[in-house]
Amino acid sequence: MKYLGLLLLVVVLFSSSVSAQVIANTKHGFQNASWNAGGQICQPCHTPHAAKLSSNALWNHQASPNNYSTWESEEVGEVSKNCLDCHDGQIALAAFGGTTDASIPNGSHMNGGTVGLSNLGVDLTNDHPINFAWNTTTTVSGQTVNKPNVFEKNGTKYVGGTSGDLRLTKHADNDYRVDCTTCHTPHGKAGVGFLLRKANTASVLCQDCHNK
Ligand code: HEC
Ligand code: HEC
Ligand code: HEC
Ligand code: HEC
Prior knowledge:
The chain is an alpha+beta fold. It is 17% helix and 8% strand. The structure holds heme C (HEC) (4 copies).
């Protein structure tokens, strides 16, 4: 019995959906980053207590102004905003935990400061559209898409593949929308590059939505 208990504990620990083992080996493994003196992985993004910088995900990073040029007229939703707090190049990476430390600027620490790749900048019209609602038609904002079934699991909606590999986010207006986290997971997935939810081998991720 004693060993069964231990075995169960081990199983619980290793089946946790956020595994530091996985994230530590990705570009979001900030444990050795020069701008992260505490050396914690989760802290630049989350805090267990007193999160007040944003209302979701116990957010611990200083918020970026929501001043983007986008495909959709409405403001960028909360979850994509989380990503853009670092990836728009406007806010210092080191500005977390309530400090506004601007000594480690964001853009200049991504791809050598060049806008593009990891530093998306504030003009999102040269990036894949986000923020649009995923509804029941096969035309979304004028783009004909291969509308896969929408899968519902534990109150969250997914699209793509045969079981829903990509995730939609519920926005304040109750629409389910495409965000950065539809294609990406901030915590990484073992064996999958670019922090994607699934490998894009032979563009299968793109073809989950686009019937080309
Ligand atoms: C680079 C930023 C970043 C880092 C580092 C990070 N997270 Fe997250 N995490 C996010 C974002 C953004 C969300 C909300 C996005 C979403 O809904 O998927 C999130 C959501 C979560 C959630 C709730 C939803 C889920 O996916 O289960 C948990 C729990 C979580 N993170 C735990 C952790 C832990 C533990 C660590 C450290 C080992 C960590 N995160 C590191 C950005 C990060
Ligand atoms: C605390 C700041 C921070 C936040 C918040 C953050 N990132 Fe990052 N991200 C980084 C840094 C730093 C890098 C490494 C950039 C580089 O090397 O040029 C990175 C790299 C990446 C990469 C490249 C991975 C690779 O293997 O090349 C992707 C994809 C990415 N982030 C997506 C996201 C998404 C999606 C979110 C939101 C869910 C997010 N990030 C939130 C700081 C952040
Ligand atoms: C429709 C799917 C999709 C959406 C939505 C999406 N991405 Fe990506 N992203 C990808 C794919 C696929 C790659 C890998 C690119 C490659 O293979 O060259 C990528 C690459 C990246 C990279 C790494 C760039 C590099 O070459 O170093 C970053 C950073 C990134 N995405 C951030 C974001 C952020 C932030 C958002 C939201 C504003 C976002 N992505 C939305 C599919 C997406
Ligand atoms: C979650 C579903 C989804 C995924 C995954 C996805 N797309 Fe899209 N894509 C869309 C929708 C919907 C639109 C139209 C949205 C809009 O115009 O606001 C679109 C728009 C586009 C456009 C047209 C932009 C324009 O000029 O109007 C291109 C090109 C594109 N996607 C390429 C890709 C590529 C390449 C990938 C894989 C890296 C990909 N998409 C993955 C749903 C998706």
